[in-house]
Amino acid sequence: xxxxxxxxxxxxxxxxxxxxxxxxSNYAMTKFIAEPFNAISAxxxxxxxxxxxxQSRKYNFExxxxxxxxxxxLIGTASALFHATLSPVTKAWEEMAIIWATFGWMCILAxxxxxxxxxxxxxxxxxxxxxxxxxxxxxxxxxxxLGSHILQTxxxxxxxYLLNKCVEQYCNLNLLxxxxxxxxxxxxxxxxxxxxxLMARWHVGCAAAAFIIRAGGAxxxxxxxxxxxxxxxxxxxxxxxxxxxxxxxxxxxxxLHKAPPATSWTLGGLLxxxxxxxxxxxxxxxxxxxLLKMAGVDQLDSV
Length: 303
Fold this sequence. Notes:
Blueprint: H1 2-11, H2 36-41, H3 43-58, H4 63-85, H5 88-110, H6 119-135, H7 141-171, H8 191-215, H9 217-221, H10 229-257, E1 263-266, E2 271-274, H11 280-294
Antiparallel strand pairs: 1-2
Helix pairs in contact: 3-4, 3-10, 4-5, 4-6, 4-10, 5-6, 5-7, 7-8, 8-10
C-alpha cells in the first residue's frame, strides 16, 4: 500500500476541482484504479489512432497521417492514466493531446489536395513541441482546462468548415442536410463518393453526440440510471476520430491517384475503413490484358 501511495503522490502537482472529476465515484470498485469505466473506455481512442497509424504505414500515406493517428493514441493514453490516477499531470497531457489532434486535423484538411507540401507535417511537430512546453509550465488545472476548451471550440468550428468544404468540392454533395449549397443536379452520384460522404457524416454525428454528452454530463449523472456519460463520451469520440481519420486518408488517396475513393465497410455497413485504390493506369492495363487474352493474343510482337 505504501508503494501505491507513493506512486499516486509522484503524479500530483495540485488538486483538481470537483468540476473536473466526472460522475464516476473515485476508487469505488477497486483501490488501484480511481474510475475504471472512464479509464477502460479510453481504449477506444487508442484503437482508433493505432489503426490509423497502421494503415498509414501499410498504404504509404504521408507522415502527417501517422502523426495525427499518434495524437489520438496520446489522447486515449493520457485520458486512461488520468482517470486511473486523477493526476493533474496526466490531465494536462490529455488537454494538450486534444488540442494537438484538432490542430493536426485542421492542417490536413486545409492542405488535402496539395501533392508536395510538407507544411502540415512540420506544423504538427511544432505544435507538439509547444504543447509539451505548455504542460511543463505547471499551470493551475482550472486555467489549463478553460484555455483548452476555448481553443477546442474554435478549432472544431474551423474543422467543421474545412470538412464541409472538402465534401462539397470533392464529392459534389452536402455534408449536412441544412447546407445552403444546392447539389440537386447530382442525381446519381458514384457509390464510392456516397460512402465517403457517409464517413464524414459519421464523424460529425458522433462528435456532436459526444459534445452533447459532455455538456450535459451533470444532468446525465443525476438521471434515474447513471449511464456513465464520460465513458460514453470517450467511446463516441473514439468512433468520431476513427471515421475522421479514415475519411482523410480515403480522400487523400483519391486525390493523389485521381480515382474514386476506395473504402471497405463491415459489420453490416457500420464500420468503414480505407482500402488501396486502383491506379487508373494499372486498371486500364489489366483491362487491356484481359481483352487480349479473350481475343486469343498471348503476347504482342515487338515493334
